[in-house]
Give the backbone structure.
Amino acid sequence: MRFQNSVFVDLLKPIDRRAFGQIVARHKGDAYDKSFKSWDHLVVLIAAQLGGETSLRSLEAAFNANSGSHYHLGVRRIARSTLAEANARRPVGVFADLFARLSCELDRRTRRDGAELLRLIDSTPIPLSKFHDFARSNGRIHGMKMHVVYDPGVDRPFCVEVTPANVNDVEIGKKTPIEAGATYVFDKGYYDFKWWRDIHEARALFVTRPKSNTRLADLADREMPQTRGEGYTVLRDCEVELASKGDSKLPMPLRRLHIQRDALKDGKPQLIVVITNDMTRSAVEIAALYKARWAIELLFRWIKQHLNIRKFLGENENAVRLQLIAAMIAFVLLRIAAHRHDIELAHLRFSELAGRFLFERRPIDRLERPPPKYQAARRRISPRQLELAYA
């Protein structure tokens, strides 16, 4: 009989064990625990994400109940006390570096020649309970933030960082490597003239919204051959310059667009003002770029609804960070598997089935099909053999 891997083994195949070992050695990930190694820890946390386990006790029971699958995963049974200690001490860099490597693998599999480089930057709050005494408050939530740089064209989050909730978004944005030729789209939380200038000097573009107190002087109106887009209308496209009397300067050409959305807010049309250093695209294309920023909000919603980042397996900061990075690793592994096996299921349906049949031995591209019925081989009887029959 042909051997069939479990769904979990197939999902973990994109992880190069040798490269992961080098990452562990670089961060000394196994320095504090010789029996429960980084690989065991990674597999257990990914299983918790895909299986929806919300406590150490339930994770221990569910994982150990499938001990027959542990050999091919390269792991062993776990104890929740050991897992709790590893969550508190294992360096976050072990999982963070693995996520970056897997993100590059996803990009290699989904890259399309000639596709524009679009980078959406945003953060999402991670509320924490009062038992997480390390958490900080930013006036709205008590907890942490997860900052993501996302490519909607290939559904690839390629940069993730977790910070306290009171860290300003733009401070993380400044750490983002700028790619020449890319277009960065972000909201008012990344309002910083110096960073905008750095993006421009790196021969990249940005599309954002200015704050209401930003003083911009009109230079000339631009022609708009087309004003109507999908769900919006561009009312005005104007070349502007910064009119501030202080030291703030933006030594680059700028455009300001006034966009009216079709969707009503409080019974009135919503007007959006957008600023960009892109002097080539049409006004409708610029408006479509800012509209595309909604894709990263959908990413955050999907992750929060379908991965386990609402309840945490530890109350210390290190445990929370490890679980958030493990959630993003699980997300990327699901995307790689979908592309590798040409799975046509919706992302939501595929992730649900993968979690349900995680330890079952079945082809990952046939999760939605029932298993074939077992047919026992008929016993061949020699014509020379007497057959017992009842009269």
In short: The mean pLDDT is 87. The chain is about 35% helix and 20% strand.
